[in-house]
Design brief:
Alpha-Beta Plaits; 36% helix
């Protein structure tokens, strides 16, 4: 399980965009968004770095992109 802090995720639409990016890497990944705290949780065996890169490519900086 991976957690990502995503400061730019401010609404449900943003969360859906992040979810699409995650699901492109692993369609069966578990995904939960906490928009209020600007955080997502991903459950998958795909390496964390792949999700971090996908989220970054979708336009959202995250704690793993630094």
């Amino acid at each position: 399980m991976y957690r990502f802090d995503i400061p730019g995720m401010k609404c449900g639409g943003c969360a859906k965009k992040v979810e699409r990016a995650v699901k492109e890497k692993d369609a069966s990944a578990g995904f939960a968004a906490d928009v209020e705290n600007r955080r997502v949780t991903v459950t998958s065996s795909v390496p964390r770095a792949e999700f971090a890169a996908a989220i970054q490519a979708a336009g959202y900086a995250n704690d793993a992109a630094a």
